[in-house]
Amino acid sequence: MIVKKGNLGLQLGICYSLFFAIYGITSPYLPVILRGIGYSHSAIGALLATYELVGIGGPIYLARIADASGRSKPYLWGAGLSVIAGLALLVTLKWPVFTFLSLSLISLGLKTPIPILDASILKTIEINVAQGRKTHKYGAFRALGSAGFVLVTLSVQLLPGFDQSPPWVIAGSAAALVLVYLLGVQSLPEPGSRVPSRNTKSLNLSWVDRDFVVGLGVMALGRLAMSSVNSFFSLYLVEELSWHAIGAMNALSATVEIPTMMLSWWFMKKRSPMAIVALASAAIVARLLVYALVPTKLGVITGQLLHSLCYGMFLPAAVAFINLKTPPVYRTTGMALFLGFGLGLPAVLGSALGGIVVEALGYRWLFASFSIFAVLSLVLYGTHEKKLNTIR
Fold first, then answer.
1. Residue 348 CB: number of other CB atoms within 10 A?
2. Would you state the pLDDT for residue 269?
3. What is the pLDDT of residues 241-295, one digit of tens each?
4. Which segments of 206-309 does DSSP mark as H helices, in order?
5. E-assigned strand segments in 73-198
6. Ramachandran angles phi, psi of 213, nearest 5°
7. Per-residue confidence at 195, pLDDT binned at 50, 70, 90?
8. What CA–CA distance (Å, rounded) separates 196 from 136?
9. Residue 218 and residue 378: Cα distance in Å, rounded?
10. What is the pLDDT of residues 50-88, one digit of tens each?
11. Domain 7-190+208-388 belongs to what architecture?
């Protein structure tokens, strides 16, 4: 299909929205599926850690190939089919070895498209700016992703007892959304931009410097703290508070992140990206302590409102930092490194440790103890503040 360049931004935005609509089920309900299959809290933590671990190496490798080939659609299609296969395997063969395999397929399928789509969006923005065209900021595209997430989480919340449905019902709903997303992928043109052939044989990280690593460390510590929410918030609602509002609360958090994502460019005119990342870490400390000290519906709602800072403000700033520190020819690889080591590795460690903490001490201690990681994020930023703030 031949696509006019002027429509590319809109098509990417729609594809982004359809992709994150899948997350509207997999993100809040994957722990629920595993609990429904019969796994304990510590086992769920270990399995989610495996899920995140696969999501580190696979996308980095595949993103590098996509950079080298200039062709993204085969990898986006393969990722979608991988999710469908993993969901089918997860609810049909319930032995641990097959659960491990199914989660690996789902992780590979859900993590691979993000750096590819992000790099395509950033490339489109740069082309439009260079040609003097009006263009939206990255936060606007990401807000479309949040809109897709919100639409799905609210829809399933309106279905009575969805969080108590058999695992195959939840998995089948996610698989149906993958099929819709693949229709969006089919309409995308290929970027047609390749990494020079001398760089295609191996992963070149010579451009990674100390500031990149420190910045990634600040992000990773904050995301390690947030992993307690990402992995166990749904079970906290149902088991600790006996409140079957998984969809509604996830929709609330995703809704409040949209305005801050849309306005992130304005904040970054006044502050450096890493200063905004640090602000997000401070908000994470407050959010986790609210969950720990105020285990009520009001406390949950308050914590979800803080998502506007914890994630809505964080993500565009983090992407801006990575974009500034990554040579254009390696942008997909840079985004994959951020996905793997800034988001994925903290999720691996947090899921594994979080399951143990929940089983031993409960959800309130989980949130209280994990706030320490966000404090460490602030300490690391503070020790390198002057240098990090020059990157803007």
1. 21
2. 83
3. 999 889 899 889 989 988 888 888 788 888 899 999 999 999 999 999 999 999 9
4. 210-235, 246-262, 264-270, 273-293, 297-305, 307
5. none
6. -65, -45
7. very low
8. 29
9. 7
10. 888 887 776 666 666 665 666 677 778 888 999 999 999
11. Up-down Bundle (1.20)
Residue with tokens 């996830």: 250
Both tokens of 352, joined, read: 């594994």
Distance from chain centroid for Cα 107? 11
The C-alpha atoms of residue 121 and residue 102 are separated, in whole angstroms, by 30
Q: What are 383-392's pLDDT values in tens digits?
A: 999 889 888 7
First-residue to last-residue Cα distance in the chain: 38
Q: Which residues of 248-284 are buried (b: 16+ CB within 10 A; e: fewer)?
A: bbbbbbbbbbbebbbbbeebbeeebbbbbbbbbbbbb
Compute the distance between CA of residue 218 and CA of residue 222 in angstroms, rounded to an integer.
7
Q: How far is C-alpha 304 from the chain's CA centre? A: 16
Q: What share of the chain is helix, strand, coil (3-state, %, to 5)?
A: 85, 0, 15
Tokens of 295: 């285990």
**Could you tell me the residue ranges of all domains in the chain?**
7-190+208-388
